[in-house]
């Protein structure tokens, strides 16, 4: 039994996580939120109070924190008495926060792979470069660390585990498909931090096929998918975190990630990328100023959290597993459909933030009640998916299945 | 009779001007070249020596100069004893250099309208904002100042004057058409300083039609033109310097400027412009760094002078005048065709720099021999075009005409 939660980060995802923690504070206990800019945390708490999200009277405090500073994170953990840290800050802070959790014996979660700001797309499997090097330390200190517990990675890993446990025992392929069929009404915007968004696509596209890492370029391989609710959508093979753990856990299956992109996004990306404007390496202007192009691009683009009020339409994200069960061909697509406007009405954020920010709260609830408090480091497909998906069914991200028997909700 | 020339600037156009001055140093006398970075001037002089461009033995010296500093420019004029200044530096320095010429009684030329770095596209007529305010001072001090004596503005103004003098006495329209049908082989590049290039297109498109200034957006009005040598080409109505003087001198004619753009250029421009990356106004990154987006875009794009070795194809730039002569409908297109590879072989620059850099040398020769040493400020259409076009026929930019009698070279 663990109680009291520290949320690190104050962007769109953190806002969702904050609301969802508040809605379940009877189980989670005291709530704290910390980021470099305390004012952003104050705003989030203000929004939680406006929507009366706290289920029971309780603590929700804002803190200023440099999450790159392990000692500062450990101090805050001691000072607040939290036993669970949900890290939804920048992926540059994962290792410093995890280190603080190891020092203090606190449960840790994040939603994206650790990144070094100066490097794009390291060698696969990505988790092997930073996270898994701390696995033994977690086991030794009995620290629960759940990696990549957003929607994708996260819920889609649980979908894969469920599909293989119950529907396709011998998987030959695992395809994650992520379609955002929403419309934010801007000429161009990314749906989350532009710096992180573009960094996903400027490197090599790694997939696991025929038992080995394969490399492609972004937008090299596209495919039309016919999906529930959102219909026929074109998606492109993309490098993504969950490929790197699923390929390690299911090495006999091909593992690929597909993300939907419209022609307009691809065109803007291609122009910026070909001109060198998505580079993480500084260039010098004629006046001698050193500028990282990607950071300027981030500065001129809309703040993704500003999109929420006008965002309409739905997302469909799921896991398609094909293979055999008892010698027979089998295929199952397990998925969720989220609505941007519903997310805004409930927690003041758009659907992309919603799908990423709710799952770590479900995981925190499972750590709080002991179900997932496993005392070591895990990727999501290494945990029992059913209690997790059951909570998500209840708190806003219901699971559906499509197979030979049609489409239907899944409960356990 | 004036002698000894100071070239200000050390870009691609300055390189052409330097070679052409050298090829005519028997008339022009001592040559000097100055820019902020003396090393660039040294390189240009080295290139002049490599190609043995100096017609007769003579002086060619490099200098370091901050051309925004009028006193420094005046000092250099005194020190070198020049009587003619060819300003082919950034358009931000026009007024400080002109002021130094006024102080020292030196003839002045430039190739583009003066610009304030912090302002895009001021009110029409553009020359009225800075240049023409110094017209009286030039007349009082008997200083010859020839404005906009590149190709466009410059030669095209002379074409307009010639067309109206000799072929279309009552002009109803003057259309300048600028087509670059060359290929530089890069994914994207501007043909001259990206900062100046993009600044031309981010503001209002001013044209003079039906006796008044009309406003349009860039790429709003496009038209296919069937031109000599380069064939059918799409060009778009664009704001450009010469519209502002020709409209003042020929207020009864519609005056428009058309520049050729491929779909690829338009797409890249549209993406950069819509995202705010062509702005001259600083933005602040999340890290607190103030950056002028346009200056970063300049830094990531190819240096236009690097394009020359691979540039192939031709340019066609000319003036189409329609109207009446002795009561009869009349129409004439006066134009030049330049070849990128020929330009590179002769002076080490591509064709766009060549067409801009040669005309001020022809004008310098006419100031040197007294023909154009008018002792006041003039736009090019206010001067006798024939001696000017005759020199250009001889030094690399021959004039052609297309009218009811067909296409043919023009000599006088």
From TrEMBL, chains A, B:
<dbReference type="InterPro" id="IPR036291">
    <property type="entry name" value="NAD(P)-bd_dom_sf"/>
</dbReference>
<dbReference type="InterPro" id="IPR005097">
    <property type="entry name" value="Sacchrp_dh_NADP-bd"/>
</dbReference>
<dbReference type="Pfam" id="PF16653">
    <property type="entry name" value="Sacchrp_dh_C"/>
</dbReference>
<feature type="domain" description="Saccharopine dehydrogenase-like C-terminal">
    <location>
        <begin position="150"/>
        <end position="396"/>
    </location>
</feature>
<protein>
    <submittedName>
        <fullName>Saccharopine dehydrogenase family protein</fullName>
    </submittedName>
</protein>
<dbReference type="InterPro" id="IPR032095">
    <property type="entry name" value="Sacchrp_dh-like_C"/>
</dbReference>
<feature type="domain" description="Saccharopine dehydrogenase NADP binding">
    <location>
        <begin position="5"/>
        <end position="146"/>
    </location>
</feature>
<dbReference type="Pfam" id="PF03435">
    <property type="entry name" value="Sacchrp_dh_NADP"/>
</dbReference>
């Amino acid at each position: 039994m663990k109680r009291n939660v520290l949320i690190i980060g104050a962007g769109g995802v953190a806002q969702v996580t904050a609301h969802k923690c508040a809605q379940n504070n009877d189980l989670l206990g005291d709530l704290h939120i910390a980021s470099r800019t305390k004012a952003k945390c104050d705003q989030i708490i203000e929004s939680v109070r406006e929507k009366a999200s706290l289920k029971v009277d309780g603590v929700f405090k804002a803190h200023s924190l440099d999450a790159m500073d392990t000692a500062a994170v450990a101090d805050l953990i001691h000072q607040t008495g939290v036993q669970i840290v949900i890290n939804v800050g920048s992926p540059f802070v994962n290792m410093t926060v995890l280190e603080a959790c190891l020092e203090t014996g606190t449960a840790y979660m994040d939603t994206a792979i650790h990144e070094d700001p100066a490097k794009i797309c390291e060698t696969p499997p990505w988790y092997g470069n930073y996270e898994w090097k701390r696995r033994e330390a977690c086991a030794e200190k009995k620290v629960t660390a759940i990696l990549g517990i957003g929607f994708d990675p996260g819920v889609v890993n649980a979908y894969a585990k469920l599909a293989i446990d119950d529907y396709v025992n011998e998987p030959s392929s695992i395809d994650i498909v992520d379609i955002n069929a929403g419309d934010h009404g801007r000429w161009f915007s990314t749906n989350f931090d532009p710096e992180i968004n573009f960094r996903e696509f400027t490197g090599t596209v790694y997939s696991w096929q025929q038992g080995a890492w394969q490399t492609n370029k972004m937008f090299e391989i596209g495919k039309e998918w016919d999906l529930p609710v959102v219909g026929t959508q074109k998606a492109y093979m993309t490098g993504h975190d969950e490929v790197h753990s699923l390929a390690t856990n299911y090495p006999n299956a091909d593992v690929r990630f597909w993300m939907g992109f419209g022609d307009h996004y691809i065109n803007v990306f291609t122009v910026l990328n070909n001109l060198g404007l998505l580079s993480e390496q500084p260039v010098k202007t004629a006046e001698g100023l050193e500028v990282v192009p990607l950071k300027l691009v981030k500065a001129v683009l809309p703040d993704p959290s500003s999109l929420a009020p006008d965002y309409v339409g739905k997302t469909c994200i799921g896991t398609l597993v094909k293979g055999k069960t008892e010698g027979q061909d089998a295929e199952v697509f397990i998925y969720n459909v989220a609505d941007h406007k519903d997310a805004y009405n409930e927690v003041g954020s758009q659907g992309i933030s919603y799908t990423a920010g709710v799952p770590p709260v479900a995981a925190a609830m499972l750590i709080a009640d002991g179900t997932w408090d496993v005392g070591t480091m895990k990727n999501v497909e290494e945990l029992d998916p059913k209690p997790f998906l059951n909570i998500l069914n209840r708190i806003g991200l219901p699971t559906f299945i499509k197979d030979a028997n049609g489409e239907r909700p899944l409960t356990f």
